Amino acid sequence: MNENELRKIAEDYPFAGRKPKQADTVVRVGEVEFGAGHFAVIGGPCAVESERQINEAAAAVSLAGAALLRGGVFKPRTSPYTYQGIGEQGIAMLVAAGKRYGLPVVSEITAAEQIPWFSEVDLLQVGARNMQNYALLKALGQCRQPILLKRGLSATLQELLFSAEYILAGGNPNVILCERGIRTYDTITRNTLDLAAVPLLKKLSHLPVIVDPSHGTGIRSLVLPMSLAATAAGADGLMIEMHPHPEQAMSDGEQSLTVEEFRELIVAVSRLRTVSGNCSRLRDDQ
């Protein structure tokens, strides 16, 4: 795809595209910023399981130096027999843990009628299975909170941007795009993490782009190298699944980092960003 083709695609998005807005958008979540050079890591378990568990996770996220706490309370699962989350009561646990450790919180909303329950959640996540839930997207366009929009399992980048348009056109300017892997013919990894999406989306759109290597690979040992790769590709942040006791996790334990592994990831990513920043300054001085 050449530059002219990219430019033509970008013109299809009056709110999300580069043509109406050349400057990168900065999305603020509490005191944390994404985009235009601002980078943040979201960490926490796939699901809120108990008050003790989410507080342990929040303590670990804070101590590691990550910026936001994640935790799902409504879990849209492929099988109706797998863990579905603890529901509305989990929101209060998540919010309380975030406040205790000074972390903005992120959780997935699955239906428009849930919006009042999420009034204290700082960043509302639209999961991959709801990327084209247009009734939900329209409702979120009228929300005050910023939205984290995940790419669908088989969605093209153009479809992801059109989904963002629904939210932006509704009046909510604060949308963060998330690459979380797509379904391909490979069966070794959970999904295929499409890191080319990061620079492509940043050419097509002014919106921040983050990467979720946990769902993108489904394999714990791959999360660190793909986090580094995503950072090097220009991502504005990472979303990492971490559990205080992955072997006991109700969902996604096999892809969740331990507390120590999460700390190591934060250190490694911070070092890479420091080196990359120094290299950028060297190029600018030449």
Structural key phrases:
TIM Barrel, two-stranded antiparallel sheet, alpha/beta
* H/E series: HEEEHEHEEHEHEHEHHEH
CATH class: Alpha Beta
Share of helical residues: 25-40%
Beta-strand segment tally: 10
Strand content: 5-15%
Q: Describe the biggest sheet?
A: 8 strands, parallel
Please explain how this structure is put together.
The chain has a single domain, classed as TIM Barrel. β8 (175-179), α6 and β9 form a beta-alpha-beta unit. The model is unreliable at 280-286 (pLDDT under 50). The longest helix is centred in the C-terminal third of the chain and has 27 residues, at 259-285. It is an alpha/beta fold and 286 residues long. It is globular and about 50 Å long. It contains nine helices and ten strands. α4 crosses α5. The protein has an eight-stranded parallel beta sheet with strand order 9-8-7-6-5-4-3-10. A two-stranded antiparallel sheet has the order 1-2. It has helices spanning 3-10, 51-64, 88-100, 134-140, 157-169, 197-204, 213-217, 220-232, 259-285; strands spanning 27-29, 32-34, 40-44, 68-70, 105-108, 123-126, 147-150, 175-179, 209-211, 237-241.
